[in-house]
Write a structure and sequence with these properties.
It is built from four helices and six strands, in the order αααββαββββ. The chain is of the alpha+beta class. A two-stranded antiparallel sheet has the order 1-4. The chain has a two-stranded parallel sheet with strand order 2-5. It has a two-stranded antiparallel ribbon with strand order 3-6. The longest helix is centred in the middle third of the chain and has 13 residues. The radius of gyration is 22 Å and the shape is elongated. It starts with a helix and ends with a strand.
């Protein structure tokens, strides 16, 4: 059970414990999905949803800073600022197994959202 299970998790970090249970059942070994979860935890694996991060490059970030510095002394009293609320329609809730640092998933700038 051990090495094959760890190899499967390294090969596909988003594999579920129920999928691993079914795979072990096909090989003649009946185990609950909680047992597999405990086994992986004993080997240092954790499971979580990937952290989202923007897809901004370092060059684009630098351009934004330059723009802000160039417009720092502009007259902003005539500019209208408003609050927005965004509702994300399709959210990725796939969990991944990881050992060291929680993985990051880049998020596109133009995700499907509804602004209210």
């Amino acid at each position: 059970m051990g090495r094959n299970l760890l190899r499967d998790v390294r090969k596909d970090t988003s594999v579920s414990t129920r999928t691993l249970t079914k795979k072990l059942c096909k090989n003649g070994l009946e185990v609950s999905h909680m047992t597999i979860s405990r086994y992986l935890a004993n080997y240092g694996y954790k499971k979580a949803i990937l952290r989202a991060t923007s897809m901004l490059t370092a060059a684009y970030k630098q351009k934004r800073v330059e723009w802000a510095q160039n417009h720092l002394n502009d007259d902003w009293s005539l500019t209208l600022f408003s609050d927005e609320t965004a509702f994300q329609l399709f959210r990725n809730t796939v969990q991944c197994w990881y050992k060291k640092e929680r993985p990051i998933r880049p998020m596109p700038k133009d995700r499907t959202k509804i602004f209210a």
